[in-house]
Amino acid sequence: MNLNNILNKEKINKDDICILLNLKDYESIEKVRLKAYNLMLKYVGEKVYLRGLIEFSNICVNDCFYCGIRKSNNNIKRYTLTNEEILESALWAAENGYGSIVLQSGERNDEQFINKLVDIIKEIKDKTISDTLPNGLGITLCIGEQSYKTYRKLFEAGAHRYLLRIETTNPELFKKIHPPKQTYERRVECLHLIKEAGFQLGTGVMIGIPGQTIEDLANDLEFFRIIDADMIGMGPFIIHSDTIYQKMYDTYDIEKRRIYELSLLMIACARIYLKDVNIASTTALQAMYPVGREMGLLFGANVIMPLLTPTYVRSQYQLYNGKPCIDEFSSECYDCIINRIKSINRPIAYNEWGDSPHFNKKR
Ligand code: SAM
């Protein structure tokens, strides 16, 4: 089918998505980008929402084969920030107009960890209520698979959004990149539990996993629709040198450009297919290409996650090689992000939670 016909459709389907994701020439990709950008303007507006990212611990009980902070990587120094350090970063976010933060870490399910988190969520909420933020900072959690009871506890403490990537919706591929105890079925179950507990649901995938096909990626987008996700966070798969993927580095290097292109096309297709969800332009895009995050915004994303992790631990939270902003301070990341967003003429949403219209419609 002709590209213009697909882009003029009210609703595209999986076959259309495959055609869009297979595009390689500049002119066609630009047409897709423009369509996605216009739908972004129509459904979520031009503002870019800031979520300050605090990577508060790199201790993890899981062993995802691709991840730099997985349990069996002994080449990193493990850390957990104190609640004072987390609070300091959160207060900095509130003072600088970030409406929301994301608390992200490796996965832990023990009571001590969850209780620490409950305490800090309550304290952040308590200490960030002001005239400009009448409900305090918005808090998104990204701490992996937990029980329903835990999700509920964290929601009741005051967090209101949760990100858990499905990573890939191809169960066979999921199996290949995780040890047997981490199952696809459990991951899907957790996504349902997160919603049941009251959270706005965010999910996403890695793009360019060895063995992943265009059809897999189209299925991923369909999965986001079926699970009724409110927010999407996708990014390129990037090799970490302390993983089994290190030996694939030569082939990966050749495919890198295409993975980057596909990541942008996935953002555009997610916007065209899902319309009113929030979509993040993730840091991994910038790890691949210096202006990757700006490009994500130009392909239809409306959320950016500037790094707020204290500088002294940033190098210990490397999920993949080439993480940007490792030596910078939060204030430098702030100036850099603001200028990057301004460079593409997009307004910044200060002091706003920026929940997605997709979620707001359901209330
Ligand atoms: N433990 C939590 C979880 O599993 O959701 C949050 C932290 S986890 C490290 C955050 C995300 O990092 C994962 O969902 C995964 O998609 C991404 N990630 C890990 N290793 C990666 C890699 N090599 N390339 C790209 N993304 C990666």
Give a topology summary:
Blueprint: H1 3-8, H2 14-21, H3 26-43, E1 48-57, H4 83-95, E2 100-105, H5 111-128, E3 138-142, H6 148-157, E4 161-163, H7 171-177, H8 184-196, E5 200-203, E6 206-207, H9 214-226, E7 231-236, H10 249-274, E8 278-281, H11 283-288, H12 292-298, E9 303-304, H13 311-314, H14 330-343, E10 348-349, H15 357-362
Parallel strand pairs: 1-2, 1-9, 1-10, 2-3, 3-4, 4-5, 5-7, 6-7, 7-8
Helix pairs in contact: 2-9, 3-10, 4-5, 5-6, 9-10
Bound molecules: S-adenosylmethionine.
Notable traits:
363 residues; alpha/beta; TIM Barrel; ten-stranded parallel beta sheet; 15 helices; 47% helix; binds S-adenosylmethionine
Describe the overall structure:
By secondary structure, the protein is an alpha/beta fold. The chain has a single domain, classed as Alpha-Beta Barrel (TIM Barrel), CATH 3.20.20.70. Helix content is 47%, strand content 12%. The chain is built from 15 helices and ten strands. Strands 1, 2, 3, 4, 5, 6, 7, 8, 9 and 10 form a ten-stranded parallel beta sheet that branches. Helix 10 (249-274) links the parallel strand 7 and strand 8 (278-281). It is globular, with a radius of gyration of 19 Å. The model has no long low-confidence stretch (mean pLDDT 96). The protein binds S-adenosylmethionine.
Structural class: alpha/beta
List all distinct small molecules, including ions and cofactors, that are bound in this structure: S-adenosylmethionine
Shape: globular
CATH topology call: TIM Barrel
Q: Percent helix among the residues?
A: 40-55%
Q: Quick one: biggest sheet?
A: 10 strands, parallel
Low-confidence stretches: none
How many helices? The count is: 15
- Percentage of residues in strands: 5-15%
CATH architect. name: Alpha-Beta Barrel
Total number of beta strands: 10
